[in-house]
Write a structure and sequence with these properties.
- This is Cytidine/deoxycytidylate deaminase family protein.
- It comes from Streptococcus lutetiensis.
- GO terms for molecular function: catalytic activity.
- By secondary structure, this protein is of the alpha+beta class.
- It is 30% helix and 13% strand.
- It has one domain.
- It has four helices and three strands, in the order H-E-H-E-E-H-H.
- It has a three-stranded mixed sheet with strand order 1-2-3.
- It is elongated, with a radius of gyration of 14 Å.
């Protein structure tokens, strides 16, 4: 769905459960979600997550996944992985 529409780059996400992000990690995406977002587009490493609403503090996906295993695979290209 996302790849067919070419809408794979995301700028910002704010996510919370019962209250706005307050620095305690309540709005952080799980590992599977982080992986999915990185696989959508390498540009998503600049995607910002709000970690503290009051302070307007954010963290990037690249900071959450500094040594993402998929960079080499993405650079090599899918056809080279077979």
């Amino acid at each position: 769905m996302f790849q067919q529409s070419s809408q794979t780059t995301i700028k910002r996400i704010i996510d919370f459960r019962d209250k706005a992000p307050n620095g305690s990690g309540s709005g952080m995406p799980c590992g599977t979600c982080r992986e999915f977002l990185m696989q959508l587009s390498p540009k998503n490493k600049d995607l910002e997550f709000m970690i503290d609403y009051d302070k307007r503090e954010t963290i990037t996906l690249g900071e959450l996944m500094p040594n993402w295993w998929g960079e080499e695979c993405m650079a090599a290209g899918i056809e080279d992985l077979d």
